């Protein structure tokens, strides 16, 4: 995924790029399609372009003891 970001003051000072403060740049970010761990998924998503449906159900923490979590 490509995102348009602006350089912030603190980050520019720490990276010694003071001339880049307030300037926009394109940043490429990796997205984990299977990052939602609060749900129990029946399958894993392989691609954004896949036309498959992936059902899920919420994980209810009230069914577990605190020591097992």
Automatic annotation (TrEMBL):
Protein name: Uncharacterized protein
